[in-house]
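Researcher: For the annotation table, I need structure tokens for Cysteine desulfurase. Please keep the output clean. Sequence:
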Amino acid sequence: MIYFDNAATTMPYPEVLKTYQDVSQKIIGNPSSLHQLGSQASRILEASRKQIAELIGKKPEEIFFTSGGTESDNWVIKGVAFEKMSFGKHIIISSIEHPAVTESAKALEKLGFEIDYAPVNKQGFVIVEHLEKMVRKDTILVSIMAVNNEIGAIQPIQELAEVLTAWPKISFHVDAVQAIGKIDTSVFLPERVDYASFSGHKFHAMRGVGFIYKKDGKMISPLLSGGGQERQLRSTTENVPAIVAMAKALRLVMAQRDTVNQRLTQMKETIYQALVKNKDVVLFSENTDNFSPHILTFGIKGIRGEVLVHAFEEHDIYLSTTSACSSRAGKIAGTLISMGVETSLAQTAVRISLNDSNNMAEVEQFLTVFNHIYEKMEKVRG
């Protein structure tokens, strides 16, 4: 099997699975309990919080655990909006955000908030100058993803941070789900960023666990009412085994990030150079430093993305029709439409997403299978 769908989810490292199992069996207390077992669970929970904070260059009290990226995005978008609604109801997000952000924004729109969508250029980057013109006195939140999940474009977070420096009362949120472990933290977490969302299963941790970064002193309303865990902001008993395992996964990923990225860059370059030679292939991702090394999206003219995905699956190679969250629902890649790509062409898009488990032998096998499929579908393309 060749698994090229790592932007959808990654396989947990064996060491991470072992940590999860060990903590599940040995740390049985509830962190909120007063007895010794509860204190033991609380200590390991806080140790994990400290480790994650250090890995991303933040303070432990700025890390809050969640169930993953969707909850993290929902919490920040809605929680900040509810907290700051007395100051204004205007929110800016980009036109290429993940559904967890866009659907949260649409839900707020029904409650009287005004949502503006910052456009992107033909390469898929938010146009900084355009967004700057959209800022108003009643703007309370700007939310921009760090790395686009459909084509891998690294958004100009630092430039946007510079723009928003003139508007210190506007909260700045970054969806960093596809960025952590792939690009340098300083690129997507400059000082001006107030909130950021993360999901464990994107970096070899368990599914169903994630965290947010909330800058010290920034306010957010809780979405869950209950026992007051996570300093009264996110009620529900913490998933201690998954959190400890996530901290370990992040440590492992960050330790080898530069080495892994060199390998990913080489693999992406090899695939890109092979695909670009074919006249009916359209490359939606660019092979430059402005794109993440782990995502490459392309299409074959005249062949719908889902057809291509299943064609590769017959050879035990697994790709995705861009966002996994939208592919099963049959939705067209929203990023490509926002970039001005024609609908018929956007429907051809498939995404390769690599990680450290992949190797050059798999790349060569993929290209062999691609050539076979490309030739086989020549009459359909014609």
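Researcher: And a one-line annotation?
Model: DSSP finds 16 helices and twelve strands in the chain.
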